[in-house]
# Entry
Amino acid sequence: MIENEIVELTKLIIEQATRVENMLELAISGLLQNDEALLKRVSQLEDELNQHEMELDEKCIGVIALYQPEAGNLRTVLMIMNMNSDLERMGDLAENIMESAHYLIRRPSIKRLINIPNMAEEVKKMIHNSITAFIDGDTKLAWQVCRNDDVVDDLQEHIYRVLVTYMLEDPTTIKRCMKLNAIASNLERMADLSTNIAEETIFMVDGVVIKHHATQD
# Structure
C-alpha cells in the first residue's frame, strides 16, 4: 500500500535530517575544540548523505511510477523529494563550514566565539523543527521556523559588524575574519533552506503561499 511506502519515505527523510544536524554539530564542535577528528567525521557523513540522497530520490520516483498517487499522497512524495534536495544542499554548506573551521583551528583565534555557536544552535533547531512540522502537519511550528529565520539573520549581521571592526583594527586578521564570516554565511543559507521546508509545509497543509519573513495573521 502506498501509505506504507510513504511511512518508509518519511523515515528515510528523518534519517537524512539527522545526518545534517550531526554534520553541523560536528563542524562547530570541531571549531570550538580545535579537533580535526570531529571535522573529518563531517566529510564521512557528507558521503553518506549524498549516497542516501540518490537512493531516496529513486525510491520516491519508484513510488510515483508504481502507485501513480494523487492529491495528498502525491504532494507528500513530491515534498519529500524537495526536502531531500534541500537537505543535501545543507550538507554541502555544513562541509563548507568544516573547511573554514579546518583553516581556523590551525591558526591563533581572533576572539572568543559566542555568536557563531549561538547561530549554529538556532539553525539546528530550525532544521529539526522544519522536519517535525512536516511530519506532524504542524503549521504553528512551521511558522515558528519562519520567524526564527529573522533571529539567524540578525546574528549574521551582528557577526559581520564585529568582524569588520577586527579587520579595520588589525589587517593581519582579515583572512581569519573572512573564514568566520563564511561560516556565518553558510549558517544563514542553511536557515533559509530550513525555512523553505517550513513554507512548503504551510502550503501543503493550509494552501497558503508565503515568502521569507512573512508573519502569521
